[in-house]
Structure formats: structure tokens, C-alpha cells
Batch of 2 targets.
Target 1
Amino acid sequence: MSGLRVIGVLFVLFAFVSSVFVLGTMALDVEEVALSAIESAELAVDLAYEAVLEAEGVGANVSGLLVELSDGVEALSGAYMSSRVGNFDDAAYFADLCYDLVAGIEAEANELRDVAAVDRNQHLFLTSFGSVFAVGGIFCGGFFGWRFFKRRYHRRVLKMKPEVASNES
Amino acid sequence: MNLEEYKSVFAVTVLGLIFVAALPPVSMVLPLPSGGERFSELWLLGPDHMAEGYPFNVRGGEVQGPIYVGVGNHMGSSEYYVVYVKFRNQTQPLPNATASESSPLSPLYEFQFFLADGETWETPVSFIVEDVGFNGNSSFVAEVSINDHVFPVNVFSSWDSEYEGFYYQLFFELWLYSGDLQVFQFHDRFVGIWLNMTRT
């Protein structure tokens, strides 16, 4: 009878210890999952922001992408706040949400950057062409204008030349 | 004027016109430096969107606000900001903006957002000071709820005999993301409001 009691006590003790161990391990797992999700979301935001800055640098209109990025990092804020108060389930949820919101932005920004770069090159070509044409026009205009002016100037000076009057004495 | 003088005037005029005509493509290749100081604004407005009427005498469990926190970007490019909301008593450290040091206190709430150059951002903030206790010459705040998120704070405050109250401060720090370092850095700006905890 006492042997059965000992086995019973040992069984209860084993169940208690193993449940504590399992719950602790699960909590650790949830925390690790949340922190890993936050890390992935941070990386996605970094890459997207870098791409947006590049696109902005070549003159693309990135206002729409900034709104999308802001939606993403709002979720990331939620992940940080949840993780600070130990709510790792919510932290993982918000981090995953941030990742989903931000994931496509890098590609969109690269597309915008490429389009803006082509536009910029076309604009540069047209502006350069117009500029070269204008410089040539000014140069030719200056050259012929100067010749015309010089001829008129000489004619005017010649008209002003004093006439030699005959000395009738 | 003689012909030589006319020639000089003519040459200078033509060179000036050539310079003007060549400027557009040159400025596209070599961006001209933009003048002016680069900075960010941080502001805090009361419930009526004015710099007055901020919550001051506060009771535990009462909803305060909304107050409005805002940021303006004048940095010359799009920027990534975070505003940290912190809570302290009179003895806990504030940020030191001149030394570029943020307060070492942990943030409670935070707002992250991107802002294009010349744009502004503003959001309402409501808060409740919860689980407030008084014991003789000291008071205790266990939790602060900001925009429906509850945060444990566990802050004591002693009776301020000079200003006659139990004072706490809710303050907002502005941080800016550094693309080179890939971290947020304190942007030397903070605003806050004093709260006098009163008994119910």
C-alpha cells in the first residue's frame, strides 16, 4: 500500500515538474518566435527604406511609398510595445503584419527608381540638346550680329568723316 | 564708345547668354547645394489644438486629453522618425538635449512613421494614470494607459512642499533613424507636461 502511495506521489511530482518545464520551454519558444519575427520585420523595413531613399534620390515621387512604410512601422511599434510588456503573441502578430505590409515596397521602389532614372535621362538629353542648340544659336547670332554691327558702325563713322572744303581765295 | 569698347560689351553679353543657356543641363548633373538649416520640429498641443489647456491636476482612473503631439520634417529628404513616450517623477532624469543624451528611462508607448521633406505629422494622445496610491508624503503610480495600451510604471513621488503637489511628468522624445548606422538616434528634442496627482 505504501509503495503505491510513493509511486502516486512520484507520479504527481513528475507531472508537476514536467508541466513547469514544458510551459517554460513554450514561453521561451513564443519569445524567440516573436523576437525573430521582429528582426525579420526590421530588416524588411531597412531594405524598403533604403530603396525608397534611392528612388527619391533620382527624383521619383515616393509619397505613396512613405504612407505604406508608415503603415508598416506602425505595426512594428505595436510589436515593440507588446514585447516590452511581455505579450509575445501580440508582438509576433504585429511583427508579421509589419513584414507583410512592407515586403512589396522594396520592389515597388526599385521600379519607381528605374522609371524615374529613364525619365531623368530623357529629360537630361532633351535639356542638353536644347542647351547646345541655344548656345550654338547665341554664338552664331553673336558672330553675325557683331559683323552687322561693325559694318553699320564703320558706315556711320564714314558718314561722319569731315569733308574737305575747297579753298577759294 | 569706340569700337573696341563695343566689342567688349558684345563679348560679355554673348558669354552671359551662353552661361544662362548652359545652366539647366549642368545643374541637372551637378546638383546645387540647398541652402538653409536642416532641422525637425516637435510640438505638443492641448485638447483645443492650442498651446494651452494641457491636463495638469490628474486623478487616478480619469481619461486625460487628447493632447496632440506633432513633428515637422525640414531635413531636406524623407526621414524615419520615432517618438517615445516616457513617464517619470521629479527626481528621475530628463533628456539632455544640449549633450544629445536621451532619458535613460524605458519608453512606454512609441510612434514610428516616415515623413517627406516639408511634411508634418500629428496624432492625438489620450492617457489614464491608473492604480494611484497615497501614503503620507508620497504617492505611487502603478500603471499608465496610453491610447488604450496599459504599461506598468511603478513610480513614487514625494510631496513637493514648494509647489504643493505630487508631481509626475509625461514626456515625448524625438528620435531619428540613421541610415549609415542603421539605428535610431536621439534627435535632441523633447516636450512634456507636468501632472499633479490628486486624491479622488
Note: The first strand of chain B starts at residue 39 and ends at 45.
Target 2
Amino acid sequence: MRRRVWILVLAAPVVAAAVLLLSGTRGFTASARQAQASSVEVKIDNFSFGPATLTVAAGTTVTWTNRDDIPHTVVSDDKVFKSKVLDTDEKFSFTFTKPGTYGYFCSIHPKMTGKVAVQ
Amino acid sequence: MSKKVKDEILHDHNHDGVDRRGFLKCMAWAGTGALCVMQGGVLKSYSLSKLSDLGASAAAAGELAFVQVSDSHMGFNKPANPDVAGTLKVAVDKINGLSTAPEFLLHTGDISHLSKPEEFDTVDQILKGTGKEVFFVPGEHDVLNDDGAQFHERYGKGSKGAGWYSFEKKGVHFVGLVNVMNLKAGGLGTLGHEQLEWLEDDVKHLKSSTPIVVFAHIPLWSVYPEWGWGTDDSAQALAYLKKFGSVTVLNGHIHQIMQKVEGNVTFHTAASTAFPQPQPGKADSPGPMKVPAEQLRSILGITDVNYVRGQHALAVVDSSLA
């Protein structure tokens, strides 16, 4: 009985460390994969950008696709990029060469906002 | 609650931001058809089917009648309505069949779906069927890609700034405002400093007894900010109109009929002639609402407005296209 308790107590930190290590590794590979990718997709559905927040490596091309029945635009807050109006299934791409955080929105429906962090 | 039909439609409404400062007196959802009359300072709404009970109604004998058309979205061709030209033609037939012929039309924006020249051309051609003068303000769909240059060239002659203007008809002062330009990330409709200054100056010299009709695309009251259904600086505009005994605000944008009275101001949004949109918060997004084909025309429509001198109120009648 007592031995079992000891094993549990001893095992707990090991298990916790293993979980941390696993999740940490998974998180690392996911962000590394994202950072290495040269192109990333953002879908516009139901008047929102998905994903609304994106982290990419410099040099990545982001492509937005409008899947709504209503036209949208993709316009950066600081006028770095600005799409023409995108009707259903139309796309807009922009290649982010400089690190920084780029907020953007739909200039027709300004409640729709998103962000691209470039590393 | 039983669904008993009453003369008077008095719905409570408790969405955030709608009745914060005022109170919602009546609201008639798309398709019901309603006549709104100010009586003793209170706006009342009557269902169209009961109109005969009102006897000599205000709408029957006005001194100035006009029609509001909104959100024709020419160029839209998705399942919610694959024939927006057809439904606009039905709206024109409806206008031509009104017992009191309107003197002119107001179009409260989203004339086109994608700001294409042929879309504007088609609307112009169809509305010519009324033989009436049309006063326009732009919707966000009319100023895509060119900051409104095309809209301004077609409809903005003699207007100020991005296309705002005013005119008089039979003692009623009409003000067309533009709240779809220079929209900011995360924000709502915007009038902007220059337009607000112009408005203050435009109404300054008018007597407080002058009936005022303000028309703009996006609602000038907070209908549902979560979907962008409101105008950030509308309170400033309304402050300039405080001294007037009768102010009627006509908007489009939300593709459904909604009304509210706040002090001397009656707010009204018109149905679209193209496709319906969901009630605030009742869907994932404000995208086009698909309804069975046989129901479509019953939730599209036009708004007929009648001014009777001395009544301090404009009678606002919504008719469906069914």
C-alpha cells in the first residue's frame, strides 16, 4: 500500500514532465511547420477571417479566399496591402517580406478584423 | 403568448444597444406590412390588413407622398434570389400601382452589388419605369474599388463631399447623408467631421416646425453593433436635429423592416428589393437569408411615405412585393 503511494508520488512529476515535453514538442513542430511554409490560406466564412490570427515567417504568401455569398475585401490597417473587392470564391494573395504585425479588416464590413504576425 | 392578430403591433425589444437611450415603440418584421402614425407624440404601428379600420388614414390624403426603395443589389445572383432584376421590376409595378402616386423616390443605397457600371445601368433602366425622379445615397456596395468616384459621377451632381446633400419638397426638408466611406477597422458606419459640420450648417437656419427627413444607407441608430448595424457618430448628427418637432430617419442596409421612436425622431429601416437578411443575432452572420421561393416576395418590399401638413408625423407604410 505504502509502496504504491510512493510510486505514484514519484511518477507524478515524471508524467507531468513527459506531458509537458510532448505538448511542447508538438507546439514547436506546429509553429515550425507554419513558419517554414511559403504559403498559408485564410478562409472568409460567415463574415469572419479564419484563422483570424496567423503567425508566419517572412517571405510567406498569405492567400485569402472569400467563401461567403457576399463580397468582402482584405485591407491592412496601415495601407500596406489592399485587395480589390472579392466576390464569392475569389482570392487575394500578399507576400509578407518584412517582420512585424499586420492588422487588417474588411473595408465593407469593418467589424471583420484579422492579424498576421510575421517573424 | 397567443398569436392573436391585433391592430397594434407593439413589440418589446431587448437587444443590447437598441433601446439604451430611448425606447422601442413598435417594430414590424419584414413581410408583415405596417402603417406607422404618430399619435399624441407616440408612434403606433398598424398591420396593413387592418388599415381599413383606421377610417380616413393619414396615408390616404397626404400633401407629399414619396417612396423609399433600398438595397436592390443588382448583380447579386445567389440562391437567396437569383433574379434581383425581376424583383426590382415587381417593386416598380408596386410603386406604379399605389393609390397615392409618389412625387419622387429615395434609394437608400446598395443600388449595385459590386459597383459594376452595368449594374447601375440596369437599376437606372428599371427605375425609369416609374417615371419619377430618384434621389440616391450610396451603400457600401456602391463605392467598391474606386472610393465612390463612379457613384459620385452618376448620382452625386450638386452634392457635397462624398455625396451628401439636402433639398426641399413642399415644406419638408430632406437630407441625404453618406455613412459608408472611410470605414475604420472594428468600427461601424461613419459620417465624419466634414459632413457633420455641413449638416449643422444646413439645418441651422430652418424653423423648428420644419419636418425633417434624413436618409442614409446604414442605420443611424444602434440596431446591432455586433454586425456593424449602426453608425459611430450618428449621435452628433441627431444632436443637430434636436430642435425639430418632427424628424424621420430612413435607412436601409439591414434588409428588414424595423422601427423605433426616440423623442421627436422616428427611425425606420426599409426592406430590400433583392434578398432578406436575418434578424439581429438570429444567425451566425448577417449573410443573405435563404427562404423558399414562394415566400421570397413576401419579405422583400418598398416603403411608401406620406406627409400630411399639420400632423407633425409622416405616415410610413411598408408593402411587400408579394
Note: The longest strand of chain B covers residues 301-307.
